[in-house]
């Protein structure tokens, strides 16, 4: 009896399971059929040939065009000036950057001037008798000498014998020695050759400087040169005078520069050429890194496409009757995100997305990008 009950219960369970299965199957949505017939849908682009501007990306650091490093040519103690000799201090053109104590040297120069003046006065009596035609001019020259003032230039003498007479008396030797000392005296005052700002230097009054010691660095703000490196193919596309659009990732704004010069030397390590960009702006500072692009002419009958659409170095996928076909092209210029190419027919279709499983001859369902 128990066995019959067990068999009946099992049959009921099986019949109930089939009923539940049929009910659930009826509730589920039927899968939709792929309208493309199993072909993957891909984005495509239409090629439009025309004139494409040539832009070459660059980056580099700004360096002041007018920049001088200051060194001491004389020895002495630094004297107090109207402006401190410190980094960040600006000076107009012709202003004194630094004054070094010249008292001892100036006294030596005065002694030398007195010595040559004594020699010139003693020669007057000999000149009066041996070269009477020259005595008036000689006396005028001697009377014009003031040891406290710059020594006057030696007059030009047409009489060669008279000139040789002066040479034999060591006059010219003493004269040029005086001029040399006067020139050296001027080096105790360091004058700004242009309006600029100190970017290096910190000398306090009383500091001792020695011959050959570096004192600081003076630059002219607002006038800069940016050094950039380009590979040979890119450097052949630009010329002096090309415009350059520049910008910084650290500060707002854009600046227009010009290609100032192009090096003729190839760096052996990187196989690149140096290109120097001129740019002027009071907002820029030395040492700032700028990025940008050189605008140099352009390419006729060309198209610009995304760089990631390239297959290898010179191929793209074209779409012909819903079939992918690899086509070789000529790459004219490579930018950061774009490339300029030739060899594609106008209004032809190319694969407009990165499709890792694509292959030559693959059937796809093309969809045009908006």
What is the topological layout?
Elements: H1 2-27, E1 41-46, E2 50-64, E3 67-71, E4 76-79, E5 85-86, E6 90-91, E7 96-100, H2 103-130, H3 135-143, H4 160-168, H5 171-186, E8 189-191, E9 196-200, E10 202-203, E11 208-209, E12 214-219, E13 223-231, H6 232-235, E14 243-247, E15 254-266, E16 272-280, E17 289-306, E18 315-320, E19 323-328, E20 330-334, E21 338-342, E22 349-351, E23 365-368
Parallel strand pairs: 1-23
Antiparallel strand pairs: 1-22, 2-13, 2-17, 3-12, 4-7, 4-11, 5-10, 6-9, 7-8, 9-12, 13-16, 14-15, 14-17, 15-16, 17-21, 18-19, 20-21
What strand order characterises the main sheet? Answer: 2-13-16-15-14-17
SSE topology string: HEEEEEEEHHHHEEEEEEHEEEEEEEEEE
Q: Which runs of at least 5 residues are low in confidence (pLDDT < 50)? A: 30-34
Give the terminus-to-terminus CA distance: 77 Å
Figure out the total of helices.
6
Given the helix and strand composition, which structural class is it?
alpha+beta
Shape: elongated
Q: Estimate percent helicity.
A: 10-25%
Mean pLDDT: 87
Strand content: 35-45%
Radius of gyration: 43 Å
Describe the largest sheet: 6 strands, antiparallel, barrel
Count of beta strands = 23
Give a description of the structure:
This protein is an alpha+beta fold and 370 residues long. Among the domains are: 82 residues, Beta Barrel (conserved putative lor/sdh protein from methanococcus maripaludis s2 fold); 67 residues, RNA polymerase II/Efflux pump adaptor protein, barrel-sandwich hybrid domain (OB fold (Dihydrolipoamide Acetyltransferase, E2P)); 83 residues, no CATH class. It has six helices and 23 strands. The strands form six sheets. A six-stranded antiparallel barrel has the order 2-13-16-15-14-17. Strands 3-12-9-6 form a four-stranded antiparallel β-sheet, with no helix packed on it. The protein has a four-stranded antiparallel β-sheet with strand order 8-7-4-11, with no helix packed on it. A hairpin with a 5-residue loop joins β15 and β16.
């Amino acid at each position: 009896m128990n066995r019959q009950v067990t068999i009946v219960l099992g049959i009921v369970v099986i019949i109930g399971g089939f009923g539940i299965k049929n009910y659930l199957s009826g509730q589920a949505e039927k899968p939709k059929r792929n309208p493309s017939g199993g072909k993957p849908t891909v984005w495509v682009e239409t090629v439009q040939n025309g004139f494409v501007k040539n832009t070459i990306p660059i980056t580099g650091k700004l360096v002041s065009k007018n920049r001088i490093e200051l060194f001491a040519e004389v020895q002495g103690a630094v004297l107090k000036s109207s402006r401190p000799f410190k980094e960040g201090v600006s000076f107009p053109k012709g202003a004194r950057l630094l004054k070094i104590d010249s008292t001892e040297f100036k006294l030596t120069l005065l002694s030398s001037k007195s010595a040559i003046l004594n020699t010139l006065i003693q020669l007057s009596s000999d000149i009066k008798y041996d070269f009477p035609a020259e005595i008036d001019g000689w006396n005028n020259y001697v009377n014009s000498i003031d040891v406290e003032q710059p020594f006057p230039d030696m007059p030009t003498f047409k009489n060669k014998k008279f000139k040789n007479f002066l040479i034999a008396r060591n006059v010219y030797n003493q004269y040029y020695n005086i001029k040399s000392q006067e020139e050296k005296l001027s080096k105790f005052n360091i004058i700004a050759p242009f309006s600029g700002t100190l970017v290096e230097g910190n000398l306090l009054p009383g500091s001792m400087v020695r011959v050959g010691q570096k004192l600081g660095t003076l630059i002219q703000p607002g006038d800069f040169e940016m050094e950039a490196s380009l590979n040979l193919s890119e450097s052949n596309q630009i010329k002096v005078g090309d415009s350059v659009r520049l910008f910084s990732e650290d500060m707002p704004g854009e600046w227009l520069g010009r290609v100032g010069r192009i090096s003729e030397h190839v760096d052996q390590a990187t196989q690149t050429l140096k290109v120097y960009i001129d740019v002027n702006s009071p907002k820029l500072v030395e040492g700032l890194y700028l990025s940008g692009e050189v605008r140099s002419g352009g390419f006729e009958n060309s198209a610009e496409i995304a760089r990631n659409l390239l297959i290898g170095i010179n191929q793209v996928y074209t779409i012909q009757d819903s079939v992918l076909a690899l086509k070789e092209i000529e790459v004219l210029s490579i930018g950061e995100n774009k490339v300029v190419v030739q060899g594609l027919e106008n209004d032809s279709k190319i694969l407009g997305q990165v499709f890792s499983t694509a292959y030559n001859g693959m059937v796809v369902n093309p969809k045009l990008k908006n």
